[in-house]
Amino acid sequence: MAECKSRHGYSSCSNRHRKMSLLWLLLMICAFSGDSGGGGGPGGFIRLAAAEHVRELEVSEGVPIGHQIGFIGEFVHDENGDSGPPYLIVPVPGSAVDTDLAIDHTTGEIRTKVALDRENRSSYSLVAIPLSGENVRVVVRVLDENDNAPTFPTPIMSIEFPENTPRDVKRTLNPARDADLGRYNTQRYSIVSGNVNNAFRLSSHRERDGVLYLDLQINGFLDRETTPAYSLVVEALDGGSPPLRGQMTVNITIQDVNDNQPIFNQSRYFATVPENATLGTTVLQVYATDQDAGENGQVEYAINRRQSDKEQMFRIDPATGLISVNKPLDFETRELHELVVVAKDRGMQPLETTAFVSIRVTDVNDNQPIINVIFLSDDATPKISESAQPGEFVARISVNDPDSRTEYANVNVTLSGGEGHFGLTTRDNIIYLVIVSLPLDREIKPNYTLSVIATDTGNPPLHAAKDIFLTVTDINDNAPEFEKDVYHANVMEVADPGTSVIQVTAVDRDEGNNSAIVYSLLDTPDTHSHWFQIDSHSGLITTRAHIDCETDPVPQLIVMAQDNGRPPLSSTGTVLVTIHDVNDNEPIFDQSFYNVSVAENESKGRCILKVSEARTTPQSPQTIPH
Questions:
Q1: In what order do the strands lie in the sheet containing 109-112?
Q2: What's residue 53's pLDDT?
Q3: 24 by DSSP, 3-state: which?
Q4: Can you tell me the distance from the alpha carbon of 455 to that of 461, in angstroms, rounded to the nearest whole number?
Q5: Would you tell me the crossing angle of helices 42-50 and 2-33 to the nearest 10 degrees?
Q6: Its domain of life (predicted)?
Q7: How would you classify the pairing of strands 506-507 and 481-482?
């Protein structure tokens, strides 16, 4: 059959097979007609159809083309049954035996002709008729392999939850389906990403149709204002080893409920308006926000007339929160108006909150005092040295009022801010001087904000204010400080010059050149500082020359850190360097020649000479050569 396929194709093979079948029937007729006992009549064919053997074979799907499935007559032929090959092959109609299987009728061998797929066809059936005439019904069953991953019907699914949905509420998700059977079918689901704060969990159950159905459950509390949407990647896994996987993205929209009341950006508002303001003049704008969405987050404003402004002197725009003059104002009648403003959302059950608005009506007074400040620093900028002593001048202040006919108006001037470090002095209530009241320290506070307030003598008085942003300049009043009082380092005795030992660091709280640090080693003979050197900028200590543990095993270095101030300030730190010994010295006798006289009758074992070493290097025991 294989040869026929390669030369002529499947159509030629089919013609040849039909010819072989006809020849086979003729041979069988001849055989039955020559049967002893006159059994060549119709009774012979009845006996042929009366007996049938069943041969069941199994093959895994996905085996390569040409894979041997088995033999038809294996283990079934006997004296009264299958006589073995050759066979007449009669496929069961619709079983695709001809297209999918290659059957050698001369041997009974069955092989695959195509790649088998259990999901498309799970079995093949045929009848094989040997020379003995006993039918052999052959069933080839295709065994399942894990060749199909779980597949969701759609790659993306969208659902919605109200943000007040209780815990454990479920939504059914599209389940994954797997064409494989048994343990190769879908076995479990998991959320692989997007589950912020573990807000959801999965549950599943298998129905009678074998599908593992999937539900999404609320695992915590939802808050649209915190997380308005989730995008979960849900994964389905079968029971293969390794398992095959399929994924689906579940887009979850959190629906808003009216669970947030409007919030004003201030709990209390202050404004002033002149008494001659015309109707419709804007006084101020209140503003509230609502974190909810849609109508639940739309804010409307109103004045609570039962608690405030019963005379309706002011009105408010419901949409923008702009408060404007609604009736003529009179300073002499009422100077201060207190309003209770309500912000309410447009939810089905609206939530609201209130804020207080204080509106002060001012008397018509056209001009406020004018404040002039001259700074007394060397470049007339707002600065003062931290070395300034109490009583030193910072700035000169003069105030005039255009409404006054005199050159210097009779205006009261006050100073606020500065945390008590600055004060205000005057001799004639005309010229004011800002002075230092308490010592300054730039390292503690480098900047001050002073507020000069001028009040005229009008009725009512008008006020003017001017802020002074004062900078405290640095002096070199802080010496560098080492991170440690004592540093410990280790170095081998055989270290080459230039070997890194330790890096020390000092900081200076001053700024600019006053904080730039230069490092150096103090040259003290008893510390062997000539063995070491230090980088003046980085503070890295390295060896300058060869060091000797026997001379000094723990030399003590004094490091000085000096800033670039005028005059410079400095501090010192101690570095204890432990030099680890190596065997670099051989033993030395205390003298190079010994002369001893011994009497000839000296007794055995008597000591005649004792030698000693002048110095030795600590070392492991060793044999001294003779």
A1: 68-71, 109-112, 101-104
A2: 81
A3: helix
A4: 6
A5: 130
A6: Eukaryota
A7: antiparallel
Rounded to 5 degrees, φ, ψ at 276 are -95, 15
Q: How far is Cα 174 from Cα 92, in angstroms, rounded to an integer?
A: 40
pLDDT digits (tens, 9 = 90+) for 373-419: 999 888 889 989 888 899 899 999 888 876 554 655 678 898 998 88
State the amino acid at position 11 in one-letter form: S
Q: Which of 219, 65, 238, 216 is nearest to 144 (CA)?
A: 238
Considering only CA atoms, which of 538, 519, 515 is closest in space to residue 529? 519
Q: How far is CA 297 from CA 180, 354, 459, 475, in A?
A: 51, 16, 46, 56
Q: Which two tokens stand for residue 324?
A: 């404007």
Give the pTM: 0.40
Strands 463-473 and 500-503: unpaired
Q: How many helices (H) and strands (E) does the chain have?
A: 3, 42
Residue ranges and CATH numbers for the domains of the chain are 54-143 (2.60.40.60), 156-255 (2.60.40.60), 263-362 (2.60.40.60), 370-473 (2.60.40.60), 481-580 (2.60.40.60)
Give all strands (DSSP E) within 526-583, no chain letters: 532-534, 540-543, 556-563, 570-580
For the beta sheet containing 336-345, the strands, ordered from the edge strand earlier in sequence to the opposite edge, are 268-274, 352-362, 336-345, 299-303
Residue 5 CB coordination number (10 Å): 13
Amino acid present at 592? S
What CA–CA distance (Å, rounded) separates 578 from 585? 19
